[in-house]
Amino acid sequence: MANSQFDLFLHEATYLDQTSDSTLDQDRLYGLYTSWCFINQQTPGPESTFWAAMKNKIDPARNGLRMKGPAATDYIMTSYPGLV
Q: Residue 69, exposed/middle/buried by CB under 10 A (0-12, 13-18, 19+)?
């Protein structure tokens, strides 16, 4: 069975850190998703569709997720242009 776009996003752009109380908040997680879509030349779905898909995959309030990979770099560089 093929993975959905959202499964691929979670696999390629996030990892679970069970040792930390920190979590990606909703704005950052959706922003990371849009960066992942940009890197992979895919059109991001609306935020409501994203959260509907995430509903059964993660707890948005306390997900333990961290960013990784090229999407993380793109998100950080886009969010904090003064770093360049």
A: middle
Amino acid, single-letter form, for residue 65 = L
Best CA proximity match to 35, nearest among 1, 80, 3, 2: 80
Domain ranges of the chain: 5-78
pLDDT in tens, 7-65: 999 999 999 988 877 789 999 999 999 999 999 999 998 999 999 999 888 887 788 89
Give the whole-angstrom CA distance, residue 79 versus residue 15: 20
Q: What is the pLDDT of residue 6?
A: 93
Which residues, including other chains, have CB under 8 Å from residue 43's CB and lie 6 or more apart?
A: 37
Residues 6+ apart with CB under 8 A from 75: 28, 31, 32, 35, 67
